[in-house]
Amino acid sequence: MRFWSLFFLSFYLILELLVPKAYCQTRMVLIYGSVTSSGTSTSTTFKTVEDCKNGCFEKEDCIMMYFMLEKCRFYSYATNGQSFSILAQSKSYVAIKTDASNIPNNTCPDTFTNIKFSYTSPATGDTYSFKKNSTGLSYTSCKTDWKRFERADGTFVCMNIVLSNGTTYTKAQERCQELGGTVTGVASVEESKFLQTKVPGPQPKGFWIGGGRNCPTVPCSSFRWVDGYTTSYDALVPSNAALTVSKNTDANSENYLTVFASNGTPLTINDINQDFTSLIVGFVCGYKIL
Ligand SMILES: *[C@@H]1O[C@H](CO)[C@@H](O)[C@H](O)[C@H]1NC(C)=O
Ligand SMILES: *[C@@H]1O[C@H](CO)[C@@H](O)[C@H](O)[C@H]1NC(C)=O
Ligand SMILES: *[C@@H]1O[C@H](CO)[C@@H](O)[C@H](O)[C@H]1NC(C)=O
């Protein structure tokens, strides 16, 4: 008797210790489906849908499992830029890790179109969302070492900070293109604050980002992003950006944008002259996931 209560007690305690609290906020959503195009996946020895689902649930980087013909495969949210897509289809199963808050009333809806398939990892802090249409779902990871940002306009952008002292904006753009991106714009205060934490000291120093002064006339206090995918100007509010009104034709005009860090100032974006490369310690490349 005592043996058994001890057994249950220790079993319970082990579960409490091993299962992060955030797991209560996560569900596996099971649908009939088949994975039509696949990047890297991991084969496992799980033999039932239930075990396959639970195995993925417990593996932190597993965002989806695919069970077909008694074979269970796991898919990671980090697969170096690869994509996979899921088409609704009977006879095989797909289960997707999803934040419970995305499931209406925490119950199973009639159709997958009522769920936002999106998982926030306690390990990375990043959110990994699937794209969805009426016939299926798809997911694309960022390339290794590129940070994922899921934006308010529904787009997904991957960013890579390249440390490089004194680089010109032109050189930064060349290097970003070699890496498969472009010097990126910044869509929110949150994004610029994240980038600011990566600026190495001693300060003030900054990273080139993909935006500049944009006026037909002078003086000018209007800026635009030039990456082709950043649409929000929320990061350029006065509480976040130290932007001057300037003549964009002056020799000293500060026409280029940086994420900068200056000894504790809450501001994260600064406009500088393109020749002020002594302030530059790197640049931020980005690309939008299609
Ligand atoms: C959620 O639950 C509430 C209260 O039970 C109910 O009124 C509401 O209709 C439910 N919403 C959905 C989307 O099922
Ligand atoms: C819907 O998504 C599926 C899975 O990603 C894809 O194969 C299909 O082409 C998409 N359909 C449309 C109309 O975009
Ligand atoms: C940039 O310069 C600083 C200070 O001289 C140095 O510590 C750092 O290693 C340099 N960074 C790179 C990427 O060269």
UniProtKB/TrEMBL annotation:
Statement: the UniProt record of this protein carries the keyword Signal: yes
Record carries keyword Signal: yes
C-type lectin domain residues: 158-233
CDD domains found in the cross-reference section: CLECT
SUPFAM superfamilies associated with the record: C-type lectin-like
Alphabetized UniProt keyword annotations: Signal
Coiled coil residues, start to end: none
Signal peptide: 1-24
Name this protein carries in UniProt: C-type lectin domain-containing protein
Natural source organism: Caenorhabditis elegans
